[in-house]
Specification:
The complex is a heterodimer of chains A (about 500) and B (about 150). Chain A has about 500 residues and is an all-alpha fold. Chain A is built from 23 helices and two strands. Chain A has one domain. Chain B is mostly helical and about 150 residues long. Chain B folds into two domains: about 60 residues; about 60 residues, no CATH class. Chain B is about 70% helix and about 0% strand. The chains are: A mainly alpha (about 500), B mainly alpha (about 150).
């Protein structure tokens, strides 16, 4: 592993790769700080720009934006009581109360250092566990991949919030949208309505921005986002007291462990990790009622957990080729544009790419602490920019991002349509994340189903005869059943009802 | 059984899923099905559309019995202005260029809320056009022109 990390460091420590990692970290922190724009939208917006870069350079930048956003999100949560990023929702609870007591600086420091520790551990988990998983999956064939995708999709809805039935519906709808375009095997046009612009399918940049970036702007236009942002707490001293350290360190350790495990699970990711860590800290403390009044554990735990999860979420994508949530689906899309297919062969065939990314994550996490702590004043200033000046800028960047994919005005009309659909999903309380995952996985699922059935000459038994495949399918069924059980269902609602 | 939905959101989602599923089934009927062993281009779409329709119907039936939240009314002004702004950018970017597309988007987004501040909208348009020109056209060489065909 040391040799490999050295190889990676050699690739990641070139001036250009350090430069893009820094740009990515800065951008990530910025969008993390700003409420109203998330990591999915930013990645989708900037993806076309990275197409022109070297694959490793492009991926380093995209990855840095994603984990950078996890750091930045805590700043807004602590200082303004608004989550800058969805994974920072729970940080508001105790972080803002700490800020009101004049301990904002301590909360920020604990969040940043906890994130650094968790980020480094998470990255080392990728380095250790990724290759192992890739090796184990080398014997996988189409039936296993199909089962793995089913497992991933089911996982994404079981661990998410909201109605299960609707989430399953969103998966099917996403699969259907994924089928638009030319069928790779027969060359038949499907669901293209005779539109030449749809022959290659709907681009995922259009879909991601139409579902995540643009509807968010519409929702903010409806509300009055500016009035809530008038009160920004003062930062104060950045140094936590000795008592604060003593309580924060164990919480950060627990959060890191929990986040690293939950990040690997399909659908897990950083949001779930932060919620789960908060729940654990409440239990462990023995005085759950004191949470929400400014306990430092309530900041240290969840902030470490979300960063650990943000890192380990790369594992299933890099070593199995299965993205566990929308950000990973986008990263995978970006790799495929460069002709790199993530999966069991990636680490062997592209060691420089894999280890370069891992090494750059270590560098990036170090940069982020510097970006977040000594430079906190800049981010506070950014928070004072009123939203009504920001949203045209966000919308313009989205539009330019969509247009840069292939220079077609049609994609913008399509995006306008998808935006209305995204707005409707929100009104119907339907989660867009499973939709986007299914949209990306759809064509691969069809391909693997086809190949499996070709192997077995049309008999479904092929999925039951292969042990790993059967195990994955059984696990999916089990997950689904567990989620339907009334007790778990209630727990699930409680976990997500914290805010 | 009452026929008025008590779960508005469930009813709406059911309608959306069932509608999309039925449309998917009808269109998939036009593609060759093949057999399970040799799937044609219509096989997987049939499965997916069938599943979608089924879930839609279940949601519809459930929504008549199980209590749930109503759908909050659409803010049409925001939807029309927001989606219109994106579409307008698409209409203008090639023939009229970046400046016109940015201005049109900013104005339409500004109209989404009552009490538009015209001076501010003007300033934002100019600043954004300048910024995007520097970053995307000068810096990144994106396939766009500042003034489009009209000015060239």
């Amino acid at each position: 592993m040391i040799d490999n990390l050295a190889l990676g460091l050699g690739a990641a420590a070139t001036p250009i790769n350090i430069g893009v990692a820094l740009i990515g970290c800065l951008l990530g922190t910025m969008i993390g700080v700003l409420p109203g724009i998330g990591a999915v939208a930013t990645l989708a917006m900037l993806m076309p720009i990275t197409y022109g870069l070297d694959p490793l350079t492009g991926l380093i930048m995209l990855a840095a934006i994603y984990y950078g956003a996890q750091y930045g999100g805590s700043t807004t949560a602590i200082l303004v009581n608004m989550p800058g990023e969805s994974s920072s929702v729970v940080t508001c609870l105790d972080g803002y109360h700490m800020a009101q007591k004049g301990r904002a600086g301590a909360a920020l420091t604990v969040a940043a250092l906890g994130s650094l520790f968790a980020g480094v551990v998470g990255t080392l988990v990728i380095a250790g566990f990724g290759p192992m998983l890739a090796k184990a999956s080398q014997s996988f064939q189409s039936p296993e991949y199909f089962a793995l995708m089913v497992f991933g999709l089911i996982g994404s809805i079981v661990l998410a919030s909201g109605s299960l039935l609707k989430a399953v519906g969103m998966i099917f709808l996403g699969l259907l949208f994924g089928l638009v375009g030319t069928d790779a095997t027969s060359g038949t046009m499907r669901y293209a309505f005779g539109q030449a612009n749809l022959f290659e399918g709907i681009d995922f940049v259009v879909m991601a921005l139409g579902l995540f970036g643009l509807p968010e702007i519409l929702r903010n236009l409806e509300g009055n986002a500016d009035s809530e942002r008038s009160r920004i707490a003062t930062v104060g001293s950045l140094f936590p007291s000795r008592a604060e350290w003593r309580r924060a360190i164990p919480a950060a350790l627990r959060g890191t462990g929990l986040g690293a495990v939950l990040g690997i699970l399909p659908g897990g990711g950083s949001v779930l990790a932060s919620f789960a860590s908060y729940a654990v800290e409440k239990q462990v403390s023995g005085q759950p009622q004191s949470f929400g009044t400014g306990r430092i554990e309530g900041v240290a735990g969840p902030e470490s957990a979300n960063n650990a999860a943000a890192q380990t979420a790369f594992i299933p994508m890099l070593s199995l080729g299965i993205p566990s949530h929308p950000v990973m689906a986008l990263m995978m899309g970006a790799m495929m544009v460069h002709g790199i297919s993530p999966g069991s062969g990636l680490i062997d065939k592209q060691p420089v790419l894999f280890w370069g990314m891992v090494a750059s994550m270590l560098i990036g996490n170090l940069m982020l602490v510097i970006i977040n702590l000594p430079m906190i004043g800049i981010w506070v200033k950014l928070l004072r920019v009123p939203y009504r000046l920001l949203f045209p800028a966000i919308a313009i960047f989205c539009c330019i991002g969509i247009y840069s994919v292939r220079g077609e005005a049609f994609d913008l009309w399509l995006a306008a349509g998808v935006t209305v659909l995204g707005y409707l999903f929100h009104r119907l309380n339907c989660e867009p994340a499973p939709f986007l995952l299914a949209f990306v996985l759809g064509p691969m699922m069809e391909e693997n189903l086809r190949r499996s059935m070709l192997l077995s000459r049309g008999s479904v038994s092929i999925f039951l005869d292969r042990p790993i495949c059967l195990a994955l399918l059984l696990l999916s069924v089990l997950l689904l059943m567990v989620a339907v059980l009334p007790r778990v269902r209630k727990r699930r609602e409680e976990t997500f009802a914290e805010d | 059984m009452r026929l008025r939905p008590v779960d508005g959101q469930g009813f709406g989602s059911g309608l959306l899923f069932a509608g999309a599923g039925i449309l998917g089934l009808i269109l998939a009927g036009g593609y060759s099905m093949g057999t399970a062993g040799r799937m044609g281009p219509g096989y997987f779409p049939m499965l997916v559309s069938g599943g979608l329709t089924l879930i839609g119907v279940v949601l519809l039936v459930r929504s008549l019995r199980i209590e749930g939240a109503a759908i909050a009314p659409f803010n049409w002004r925001v939807v029309v202005c927001g989606a219109g702004a994106i579409a307008a950018f698409g209409v203008l970017i090639r023939p009229a260029g970046l400046v016109a597309a940015v201005a049109a988007l900013t104005v339409l987004m500004g109209l989404a809320r009552p009490g538009a501040r015209w001076v501010e909208i003007g300033v934002v348009s100019v600043v954004m056009a300048l910024f995007c020109w520097l970053v995307f056209i000068v810096g990144l060489d994106a396939p766009m022109r500042l003034w489009g065909r009209l000015g060239a």
